[in-house]
Backbone:
């Protein structure tokens, strides 16, 4: 302990000065998107907040993140794509193993701007318009549905919420907008994938979803194929409004390339008797900070969070969940699992808050972490704040390893050690992976097996 | 050539010698039973045949189909055709009995690969035949299984994986009469000219249903007497003390 | 007696106002040479900004020596800390730094203590320290206990009465193969602030059992840090607390497994009611070299009132995978089923509550080896139910 103990106030990091990151750049961006004034104002306000806010004092180390490096990619007409040669071998390899079709490979790798998902997309568009569902890329929605968008855009997560929300507000680009009218049940899951060809290339996309009273939607973001982009910062945002009696399910898998900083904000406001389900699988990126949040605002609202995080060599994945019970008779359930292996670091950070007025709340949180070896690290730091006594709160966490006996048992049935480990790990992840859409689940399992040098299909 | 031939085996665990010069020979088509008091090392024998790394073999040899398997890793032994039914099999959360068995089957019988549907049919047929509830197949292996369910699960595996040598470790302990019958039925179902059975037990109850050709009495780390079914009768009357040297 | 108020709103470096203690204040208390370095560091350190305890002001009373006898027991060496320093007995531990609840308070204890004891236990020993805040409204304690190899020690520390400030820093060195049972009992409702920091260095094969009983003070910070530094060290801590009115308690327990094959169990259970606020922080830390560790923490809080608040922050930091590391926390109210069942046997709600709460404390009370102390705890508990 140091001799001259200072106080415990936060040490304020000064933002690395980025001269090119200024009002002029933001105005350029807004202009190129032909945005209404109110959106331009929002961007400028966000810029202000970003420049003032200190970096978060928890989570992953972002000291090496240099805003200067991403500026070139923010400019309209800037070079947005890599050439196929620049794409890392490791990624090309995974594409092969997962059997990704040629055209898709290029889009995923950030090479080439167009992917003709048009045919599939057109079909869906027809069905949706019959139901009155609006599904567009976010930028077009800003122009075509200003009243709705303005009402909701960055209201769940305002620009001054935290530093990266501010960054996002200033430079957001691309993303999806979905509006599901009252009592409409969307028959198929909608995918962010359809919007991939839009400008912005997924780094700062903003997804805004409104599920009106009694409606039902399943939205899928991301894909398990590795995504490579020339810019190494992904700071997206997802805002979801689940109105009375509606049901929303949001599934994500992220497998960003190993040089990426993945700093996301996802938040849902859940109304009376509505249900929100988050299913997230994180396997990529160098550093991730991801805490899907559910604000249970209406009486009887319900949230379910399921995460699976796999942190391998060189990765620091700081993931978790935030559930805030603001109303009575609300309930929540969190099942968070992580695996750390080959020196990877998995950190579960959770917040459960039950406010004074939230009586008859029930919540259960379970975190399990599997450490494959001693080079890896695993932490769980849940914060539980309960301000009403008519609440039934339970939390449990466990960190450990695979039992030797389990490996032996599987080997006694013929499996090799690698296959046995891969199978056990798959079993560990199974309850969550099976909540993902089938193709994603299969791919996720395959990705994990690959990490074990196992050929388990 | 014998299916399994163990000669003068000595082994220790935690620096304590537990197998002290064991000899046994099992041929295809034969049913052997090894009986002995608790703590005699019977489970150790099973573990040594399967290849549990916790034990150190200090002398002797174990020949399977004429091949010395000492030092061979457990999964290779499984692939050669050795199967152990464990007394306390491990729970593997998230992995269903169905998926697990398909995987194991494909690994052990690579030349007899079946489609998922054919395999599923085989599983159902076998479960019905063995009077094991079909719902078993979609439960996670051994998770929350009662003692009886665990034993049945192991016996189902035995029937599906078709090994050459089945080492059944205390398959009958803790079972009620109905479960015992199911297990015995499951064992009888595999007995035939292409398999050798080594049934390790403490009680002679299961022998009412599974008829052994040879009975070995196992006391303090080695086999002290070998005979036919009459030896089992003797044990029932005299108890194990009469065999202790 | 002059009460001096210190407004602590902004914690800034090198915070020093005329209202805080000065280095010279330590002179009046004796053994100045020993106290001086701590006092110097103390004035360079600021007060903490504790948002959960809402610590915006501390009443620092005038420093004077403790009146009355607080120490009794039977041990190889057992003296007040003053005497022990005079006799040059306190050598070990003067270099072991610990932050405790906050360095400002551990430094305060080491610089300005007016109470405290030193004990060295060989063979068998027991220590009973009882501080009465009625007679000593500012009690600052600094104590050291050394338990030699193979010895068995029972230490009971009881704080009762109504005072302004109680600060304590205690260090235990539990040597190879020895056993410690420590009962840390706070029954001081209406005392403004109690800050209690305890450090335990636990060596090979040593066995430590701690009971932390908290029945009031308006604001309580209780900190216990266990450093298991050699293999086979074993620690078990049971904490029982009952907070009412506007009381606030911030309890922090840390198990630091700095050696392989060490064992830890943290168990907290208690009750909050009225508008009280309780924070339970359990931390299990298992660094890379510590294999074969078995460590669990568990917290259960019964919340009787809609205005009371409970926070739980149980954390696990693990860098070795051959371990069993687990934590569980649950917060709830009186189980409706249990209530109904007992009422169907004729009891009313009050009686049922009393039974259940007593049931939570009973195992700990039973473990206390001194009848008088047992009775104090029972009275303290029953006056709250």
Residues:
């Amino acid at each position: 302990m140091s001799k001259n103990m200072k106080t415990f106030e936060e040490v304020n990091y000064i933002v690395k000065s980025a001269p090119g990151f200024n009002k002029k750049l933001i105005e350029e961006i807004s202009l190129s998107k032909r945005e209404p004034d109110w959106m331009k104002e929002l961007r400028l306000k966000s810029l202000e907040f970003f420049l003032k806010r200190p970096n978060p004092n928890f989570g992953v180390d972002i000291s090496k993140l240099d805003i200067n490096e991403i500026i070139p990619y923010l400019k309209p007409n800037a070079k947005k794509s890599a050439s196929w040669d620049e794409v890392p071998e490791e990624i090309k390899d995974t594409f092969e193993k997962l059997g990704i079709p040629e055209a898709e490979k290029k889009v995923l790798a950030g090479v080439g701007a167009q992917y003709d998902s048009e045919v599939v997309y057109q079909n869906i568009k027809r069905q949706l318009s019959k139901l009155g569902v609006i599904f567009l890329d976010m930028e077009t929605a800003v122009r075509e549905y200003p009243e709705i968008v303005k009402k909701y855009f960055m209201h769940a997560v305002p620009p001054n919420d935290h530093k990266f929300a501010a960054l996002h507000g200033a430079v957001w680009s691309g993303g999806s907008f979905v509006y599901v009218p009252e009592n409409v049940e969307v028959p198929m899951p909608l995918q962010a994938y359809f919007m991939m060809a839009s400008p912005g290339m997924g780094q700062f996309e903003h997804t805004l979803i409104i599920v009106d009273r009694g409606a039902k939607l399943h939205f899928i973001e991301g894909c398990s194929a590795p995504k490579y982009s020339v810019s190494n910062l992904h700071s997206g945002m997802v805002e979801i409004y689940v109105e009375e009696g509606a049901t929303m399910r949001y599934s994500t898998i992220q497998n960003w390339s190993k040089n990426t900083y993945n700093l996301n904000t996802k938040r849902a406001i859940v109304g009376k008797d509505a249900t929100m389900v988050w299913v997230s699988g994180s396997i990529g990126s160098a550093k991730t900070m991801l805490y899907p949040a559910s604000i249970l605002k209406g009486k009887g609202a319900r949230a379910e969070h399921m995460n699976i995080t796999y942190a391998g060599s060189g990765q620091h994945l700081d993931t978790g969940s935030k559930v805030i019970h603001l109303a009575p008779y609300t309930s929540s359930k969190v099942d968070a699992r992580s695996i750390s292996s080959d020196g990877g670091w998995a950190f579960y950070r959770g917040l459960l808050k039950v406010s004074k007025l939230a009586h008859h709340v029930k919540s259960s949180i379970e975190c399990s972490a599997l450490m494959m070896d001693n080079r890896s690290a695993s932490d769980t730091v849940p914060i539980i704040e309960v301000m009403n006594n008519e609440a039934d709160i339970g939390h449990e966490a466990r960190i450990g390893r695979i039992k030797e006996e389990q490996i032996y048992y599987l080997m006694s049935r013929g499996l090799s050690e690698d296959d046995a480990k891969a199978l056990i790990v798959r079993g560990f992840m199974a309850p969550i992976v099976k909540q993902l859409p089938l193709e994603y689940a299969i791919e996720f399992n395959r990705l994990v097996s690959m990490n074990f040098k196992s050929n388990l299909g | 050539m014998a299916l399994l031939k163990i000669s003068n085996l000595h082994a220790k665990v935690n620096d304590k010698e537990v197998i002290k010069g064991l000899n046994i020979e099992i041929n295809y088509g034969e049913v052997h039973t090894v009986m002995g008091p608790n703590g005699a090392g019977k489970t150790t024998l099973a573990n040594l045949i399967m290849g549990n790394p916790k034990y150190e073999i200090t002398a002797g040899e174990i020949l399977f189909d004429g091949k010395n398997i000492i030092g061979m890793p457990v999964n290779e032994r499984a692939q050669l055709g050795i199967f152990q039914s464990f007394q306390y099999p491990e729970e593997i959360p998230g992995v269903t009995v169905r998926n697990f068995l398909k995987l194991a089957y494909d690994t052990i019988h690579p030349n007899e690969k079946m489609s998922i549907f054919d395999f599923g049919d085989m599983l159902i047929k076998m479960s019905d035949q063995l009077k094991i509830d079909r719902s078993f197949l979609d439960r996670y292996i051994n998770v929350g299984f009662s003692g009886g369910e665990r034993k049945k699960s192991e016996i189902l595996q035995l029937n599906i994986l078709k090994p050459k040598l089945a080492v059944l470790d205390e398959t009958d302990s803790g079972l009620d009469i109905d479960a015992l019958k199911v297990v015995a039925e499951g064992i009888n179902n595999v007995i035939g000219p292409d398999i050798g059975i080594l049934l390790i037990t403490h009680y002679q109850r299961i022998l009412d249903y599974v008829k052994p050709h040879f009975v070995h009495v196992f006391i303090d780390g080695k086999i002290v007497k070998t005979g036919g079914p009459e030896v089992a009768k003797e044990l029932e009357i005299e108890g194990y003390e009469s065999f202790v040297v | 007696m002059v009460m001096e108020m210190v407004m602590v709103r902004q914690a800034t470096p090198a915070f020093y106002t005329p209202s805080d203690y000065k280095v010279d204040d330590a002179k009046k208390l004796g053994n100045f040479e020993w106290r001086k370095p701590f006092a110097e560091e103390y004035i360079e350190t600021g007060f903490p900004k504790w948002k959960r305890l809402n610590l915006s002001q501390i009443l620092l009373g005038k420093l004077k020596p403790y009146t009355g006898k607080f120490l009794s027991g039977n041990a190889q060496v057992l003296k007040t800390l003053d005497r022990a320093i005079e006799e040059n007995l306190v050598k070990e531990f003067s270099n072991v730094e610990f932050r405790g609840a906050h360095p400002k308070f551990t430094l305060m204890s080491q610089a300005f203590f007016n109470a405290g004891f030193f004990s060295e236990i060989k063979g068998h020993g027991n220590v009973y320290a009882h501080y009465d805040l009625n007679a000593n409204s500012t009690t600052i304690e600094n104590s050291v206990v050394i338990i030699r190899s193979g010895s068995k020690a029972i230490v009971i520390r009881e704080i009762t009465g109504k005072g302004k400030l109680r600060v304590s820093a205690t260090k235990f060195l539990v040597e190879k193969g020895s056993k410690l049972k420590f009962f840390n009992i706070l029954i001081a409702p209406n005392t403004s602030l109690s800050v209690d920091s305890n450090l335990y260095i636990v060596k090979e094969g040593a066995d430590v059992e701690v009971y932390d009983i908290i029945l009031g003070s308006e604001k309580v910070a209780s900190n216990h840090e266990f450093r298991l530094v050699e293999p086979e060290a074993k620690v078990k801590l049971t904490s029982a607390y009952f907070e009412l009115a506007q009381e606030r308690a911030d309890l922090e327990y840390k198990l630091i497994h700095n050696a392989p094959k060490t064992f830890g169990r943290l168990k907290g259970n208690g009750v909050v009611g009225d508008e009280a606020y309780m924070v339970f922080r359990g931390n299990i830390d298992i660094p890379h070299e510590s294999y074969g560790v078995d460590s669990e923490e568990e917290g259960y809080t019964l919340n009787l009132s809609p205005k009371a608040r409970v926070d739980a922050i149980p954390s696990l930091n693990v860098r070795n995978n051959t371990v069993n590391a687990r934590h569980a926390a649950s917060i709830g109210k009186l189980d409706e089923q249990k209530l109904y069942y007992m009422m169907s046997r004729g009891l009313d709600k009050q009686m049922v509550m009393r039974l259940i709460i007593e049931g939570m404390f009973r195992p700990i009370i039973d473990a206390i080896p001194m009848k008088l102390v047992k009775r104090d705890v029972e009275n303290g508990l029953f006056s709250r139910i």
